[in-house]
Amino acid sequence: MSSTTAEPNKTRNLIFIILGALVVIATYLYLIIGQPTDIAAGLGPSALIALAGYLIGAILIGVGAIHRLPTNTLVLIPVAIAINIVVGQLTAALGLPFYFDSIGTILVAVVAGPAAGAVTGAFTNVIWGLTLSPLALPFAITAIVIGVLAGYAARIGVFRTYWLPPIAGLVTGVIAALVSAPIAAFIFGGATGGGTGAIVAAFQAFGNSLLASTTLQGLLSDPVDKLITFTVVMLILLALPTRFKQRFPFVRQYNVLPGTKAKKLD
Amino acid sequence: MTTLYLDRPSPIHRLNPVTKLVGLLAVVLVVFALPQWWASVAILVLVMVPAAVVSGVGGRLLLVTLILAGPLLLVLIIAQGFFYPGRETILFALGALQFSLEGLLLAVGVGTRTAVLVAASVLLLLTTHPGALMTALTERGMPAKVSYVVSSTLQIIPAFRTRAESILLAQRSRGLRTRGNIVRRVRVLLPLVTPLVLGVFVDVEERSTAMEARAFGSTRSRVSYAVIPDSRGQQFSRWALIVLALAVVVLSFTGVLR
Questions:
Q1: CATH number of the domain where residue A222 is located
Q2: For chains A and B, what is the number of CB pairs under 8 angstroms?
Q3: Taking a contact as any Cβ pair under 8 Å apart, which residues of chain B between 136 and 155 contact chain A?
Q4: Which domain holds residue A70?
Q5: d(C-alpha B144, C-alpha B142), whole Å
Q6: Which pLDDT score is estimated for A150?
């Protein structure tokens, strides 16, 4: 397995990721701080800038990150995407008021690192866009952010404890809500689904702007969803045998999970 | 996984997938660059409708577009019509709620734009098999890893869903109750998801070894097994579409088209 970790063009991939992150950050700052004047109209160049900036950024990060993954990590990703989609639909079948469509992303991020989490997140939205609804595609950047944050949370040792993962989930949910709010506001005018559209309208009725309303709607649903998702992922990882968890180099290197400490002779 | 693709003998089906993708991008760029709501309506009537008729999948295209964009348009008209903050011209009032022209125009603008985005994407998916799209893009330099992730996921999902259902049945036969209050149903999720995850992760290791043995990680350029037909005319139209769309964007940003 060690032969699969070869990574040619390392600098090129890093440049892709940094460039993608800069494009996304620039787009975000333009939309949030620049407060384009056409936000009241919801139409005009800011919609195009939001769509193009977030998509180009997501593609650059996705391509840069996918090249960093060795084959044994890459084969995890289709499985993780399938977990996202099937568990998301299973949740709907059980009639739960959550999405739970990022369990696979967070699971892969915890056992294989932020780059793997980013790729899983991005491609979940690509597959969703190809099969269920093209409207999922602009939100790819949110899924990338969730995967990256979960990966770094695991790296600093959040999943070594039993009480930190829910907190990390809460923080990830808040950031995810902030990242996706401008997409919902500028590209879709606040209406991304039947239920959430009604909540956005309710916030607007209290005199909030469109962007403030989509942000508040996101803050209402995302943190709770991610808190539960992170907790479920922690419980799944606890239930998996240690021998299985120790297969992942990322888990051993950063001592991600309780009882998986790297031996001196590794 | 069930993709939207429908096999029909139409000229649009025979186009190179990259041509269709460039067409989609050009259409989306144009409707997002132009702030006028009638620009999106014009694209819908003058581009999408003829394309739908020629492709022979018009009925399905209409159905899927209505299912995806219809509720959105409805929510937008109700939400923005009544609650748009900058309302001046009131069309009618329901009690204390005032329906404004400005809100309606915003809703129609965003709604038709989204409808074009959905219709153009769905037309691409109805007339192009994802496998063909991936092969054509890989031929043009898209990393083979991207193609692997997309194609492999589409094949894994049905098998995965079958496995999820059999686990659900197995746990129910052992007395797992999947009904009850929310806390109980969240707790039910765990004995379902854990065997699912463990099972598929075990398969993954074997697959990785098999792929490595077939030079999956190699960075040398490869030849393609399936050749996707292309033509000079299509090559030219792709560039023409890109130039046209960018021209609209530039004209719109410099204020000529508004």
A1: 1.10.1760.20
A2: 216
A3: 143, 145-146, 148-150, 152-154
A4: 8-253
A5: 6
A6: 96
